[in-house]
Amino acid sequence: MNLPEPLPHFVVLPAAPFRIGTPERELGALARAYGGTRESYREESPQHTLTLPPFAIARTPVTNALYAAFVVATGASPPLHWHGPAPPADLRACPVTNVSWDDAMQFCAWISGTTGYRLPTEAEWEYAARGVDGRRFPWGDTWDPACANTRDGGPGRLTPVESYPAGASPHGCLDMAGNVWEWTASLDAPYPYRPDDGREDPAAPGRRVLRGGSYANPHGFARCACRFRLPPAARNEFLGFRLARGVDL
After folding, report:
1. Which of 14, 20, 97, 243 is 20 to 30 A removed from 177 (C-alpha atoms)?
2. Is the CB of residue 122 less than 8 Å from the CB of residue 19?
3. pLDDT (tens digit, 9 = 90+) per residue, 34-52?
């Protein structure tokens, strides 16, 4: 497939134990820091350790420019804010938004070919975002508005995908905090995370998990462990996605 826009750079994550979720003892502190009650954060608990097979994940989300190649090639409906088959020029390097989980899955099927591009699972996403040391944000445990596009100090709009290099994750991934919520492959299901319990069945009905927060959210939503969920047909100006694929090491 000859694409007018290059695919994002991919980083390979080896199999290694990492912590997913938030310890139950910290739920009260999250409520005091970010609002709500302990129960508001219960879905992030219990924290547990996983070791995933090696995989690769895109360094940046899918951009409007790359998504436009899919629209042109397949005749898929463009995001509503494009007002036609091409994105506004000033948004070409920004993450595509107004895409549903279904749209993202169709994009993956189109671009996959023999390479197996897909959405990351929510466990893969969290491993890529926080690394093996369980950090709260991709860059560390302390909030820094210079590292992410959120409501706390951001410009109040989308930014190009490489605008916050200081916010890179331990594996070099960008925009894993803020800018756009990112669809994952996973169904909304309680922890502990188990990849074999049906939550990774693409045909199963139910809400799908999003990660990362957006430019319109306060930074509590940009924590690596924060989980959000929507029906797979949902679309709005805050929803995007990034690609992943399996690897053989």
Report:
1. 14
2. no
3. 999 999 999 999 999 999 9
